[in-house]
Amino acid sequence: MLNSSQIGALSQIVGQENCYADKAHRLAYSYDATRASHQPDLVLFPRHEADLQAILRYCNAEKIPVVPRGAGSGFTGGALAAQGGVVLAFEKHMNQILEIDMENLVARVQPGVVNMEFQNAVEEVGLFYPPDPASQEYSTLGGNVSENAGGMRAAKYGITKDYVMALRAVLPSGEVIRAGKKTIKDVAGYNIAGLLVGSEGTLAVLSEITLKLIPKPALRQTAMGIFPSVKAAMNATYRTFGAGVTPVAMEFLDQKTIAAVEATYKKGLPTHAGAILITDVDGNTPEDISWQLSQLEAVFKANGAETFYRAKNEEEAAAIWFARRNASPSLKHYGPTKLNEDITVPRSRLPELLDRIEAIGQRHDHPIPCFGHTGDGNVHVNVMTNKKDAVRYHNAEKAITEIFEAAIELEGTLSGEHGIGLAKAPFMNMAFTPAEMALFAAVKKAFDPHNILNPGKMGI
Amino acid sequence: MLNSSQIGALSQIVGQENCYADKAHRLAYSYDATRASHQPDLVLFPRHEADLQAILRYCNAEKIPVVPRGAGSGFTGGALAAQGGVVLAFEKHMNQILEIDMENLVARVQPGVVNMEFQNAVEEVGLFYPPDPASQEYSTLGGNVSENAGGMRAAKYGITKDYVMALRAVLPSGEVIRAGKKTIKDVAGYNIAGLLVGSEGTLAVLSEITLKLIPKPALRQTAMGIFPSVKAAMNATYRTFGAGVTPVAMEFLDQKTIAAVEATYKKGLPTHAGAILITDVDGNTPEDISWQLSQLEAVFKANGAETFYRAKNEEEAAAIWFARRNASPSLKHYGPTKLNEDITVPRSRLPELLDRIEAIGQRHDHPIPCFGHTGDGNVHVNVMTNKKDAVRYHNAEKAITEIFEAAIELEGTLSGEHGIGLAKAPFMNMAFTPAEMALFAAVKKAFDPHNILNPGKMGI
What is the pLDDT of residue A242? Predict the structure, then answer.
C-alpha cells in the first residue's frame, strides 16, 4: 500500500490530473483478458519520457512496484499489478506516431499508439506493418513489443520482434537508454533491443519504439482447403512451406471449431470436414499469385484435400475469413468457461500434437476445439469447461498441464505469442532448467536490482 | 600465464592430442584479419559440449581467460586472446552438421561448421541459408553467430540474427543453457538467443546452433546501373526500396574503387562513372523477375543512371559481380595499408555520408575508396595509407575517428557487421552513453561474473 506522502510525490511528478488513487480507476486498471483482477494503488498517466524517469527514480528509491500497461488485452496477466503499486497507462499522452520515414521505411512511435491506428496510418502512405495480433483494434504497440505479439501474417512476415529496430527505454534508476538504430544492421554492443522485446515490462519501461515498415504488396488472394481430417490438414501445412510457398497466413479450424461457428452463425460451413485451412498469398504480379496458388492446390490435394477453393473477390475472401475471425467467440457453444493456451511446436509435429490433444480431451471428458496459426505451428487450444463446477474445472486444469507437457515433449514452447505473465508462470519450471531460470533472474537483476518492474511475472 | 598444473588439468579434460601449449600453435592461433597478434597460453580443441563444460568450470574457478574462436577471419580482433589464457578452436571436432530438418526447414549445426559448406549442404536439398559474409569460404557458423555476420544478401534476407532460432551454450559456471526453440514463435522467457547473437563470445560458449532455412527461389537475375555521381547512386538506392522492390543484393562501387579494380584486372569497367550499383533480384516466376527489374530500371533512370544493364546469362552476371568481389584486394593500388571500417547509416543518409567521407579524405590527404552493401546503408570505408609513415598513418587514424563521428551524427552505427572486438572498443564511448555502457557491463556480469569469457572485448 502506498502512503499519502508517496501518492503526493508521484502526483507532483505527473500533475493531479494524471494521477488517480480512486476506487473507479483502481478497478478499471485491475483487469486484462484473463479476467483475473489485481488492483494497483495508483494509476498514473505519464506525459513524456521525463515523467517516466522521475516516476521510476522515485519508485526505485521507495521500492514501489511499477507496472507498465498497454490496452490490458493480454491473455496472461502481464499488465496486472500483481503486487499492487503503480500502473503506468499510456493512452492519454504517450500515444503519438512521431514519424513515418518514407525514405528509410521506418516509423517512430510512442508506446500508447494502437496497433490498428498505426497500420492504417502507414498503409495510407503505401507502406505496411505486418504484425496483426487478434487484439489489433485496441492493443497498443508498447504492449505488442512487451509481449512480442504475433498475428495471422506471421507465417510469411514474422512477429513483432522482427520489426523492432530500436527502442528508447527508461531503467528503474531513471536513466534513459537507447537500444538499436534506424539502420538495417547494427552490431555495436549487446542486442538490448532484442532482449527488451517480449520481456513483459520486467526490465525497463519503453518510451519510444522504432519500427521497420515494408512496401505493401499490390496483390493478395485468399484460398481455402477442406480436409477429411485434422491430420491431413496438418500434413498439408508443413509440406506447403517445403514446396517453396510461404503464404502470408495459414490458419486452421478443426471439426469442433467449424461446428461451433456454424451453430452460432449459420454460414453453410463444411461441418463434415475434419479441418479447414484458410490461407492468403500476396505478391506484385498476377503470375506470382497464380504460381503460389497452384503450388498450394497441388500440396493440399496431395495431402487429401477434397476441395481447394480460390476466393474470386473481396466478398468471398471476407466470407472465408469470417469463420476464422469468429472462431474464438463461437466456442461458448461448448461450455461457459474457456481455458485457452497458445502452445507452439515445430510444424512437422502438429499432427502428433493434435492427436495428443484429442486424447487428453477424451481422457478428461472435455471438448478441446483447436484453431489458429498452423503456419507457425501455433495452435490455440481451448479447453471448454465450467468454472462453477469444481470437479470439472479441476479436470480441465489437469488437461491444460498435460497439453503443456505434450508441447514441451514435441520440442515446442508454452507460448507462441501470449507470453507468460501470471497465468503461465507456474509452468516455467516445466520448460526451463534451474540454470536457465537462474540466468533469467540474473538478467532481471542486471536491469532491475530492486525488482520494482512488474514483479511476480514470468516466474522470474 | 598458465602454470603447468593448470595446463595439466586442461589437458586431462580434452586429452593430450587436443591440447597445445607449443610455440607454433600459440602463434598460429594469435592472429585474425586485423593483423594484430595476441598469443594464448594454450590452444584446446574441445570434442563435445561436455568438454566445454569441464573447461569452463575449471577456468572459471582458476580465473583463466577463455576465448572461443572460429576461423580467425574477423576484422575487429574478436577471436584474439587479448589477455592470454585459453583459445577454444572448433575446427577439429565440433564441426558437424547434425541435422537438416526438411519438414521444418531448420538445421542444427555445431559451431565449427564452415558457412559455405553449410550453404552447399542445404542447397543440395533445395533449401537456402542466406547469410553470406565475404569470409563465407572459411568463416564458421559459430563465428558468424557470435559476430552477427551480414553479407551481400542482407538487403532482402537479413543477417545472421534473423536465422538463429535456438542455441545451446555453456555458461562460465559450466552449466548448459538452451535458448530459443525449433519453432517459428517462442515468447516464453527472455530472448537469450537474441542476446547471445553478436555478443562476441563474451557471455557464453556456443555448443549448438539451430538455424532457420528457407526454400531457394527458382530464379535470379543480375543487373547493373552506371551513375554519373556517387550521390545519384545513393539516391537511387534508398528510393528503390520505397518503390516496392527489395533486391537480394544492392552493392555499390565508387569511382576510386572502380578505377582500382580496372587498374588491377583490366575488365573494361566504366571508369568515367561516379559509381555503379550492382543488384540481384530473385523470385519464382519470370514475370516477378521482370517486374522487379522494370521497377529498378525506372528508379535508376529517374535518379540519373546513364545505363541500366540486365545480365543475359550466368557468364554476364559473373562478369558484373567480378568487380564487386575483387574490390577489396584491388585497393592496394592506393597504398600498402588499409584501414577499413563498416559503418552503417539509415539508407537516406548515404548521400550525405559519402559527401562527408570525401571531405575527410581531402582534409587528411588520403584516398578513401568506398564500396559495399549500400542496400543496407552499410559502407565499407577504406582509408588507404602507409603504416611505415608515422605522420601519414596518424592522419589516417584521425580520418577514421572523423568517419565514426560522421556515422554517429547521421544516426548510424560504428559497425554494421564486423563487430567491435578490440579494434573498435576505443570508440564505444562515442556511440553509447555511460548508462548504456553500465548496462552492458551489468549484463556481462549476469552471465560471466568473473569476466573470464573473451575479456577486454567490446569496451565492456
Answer: 87
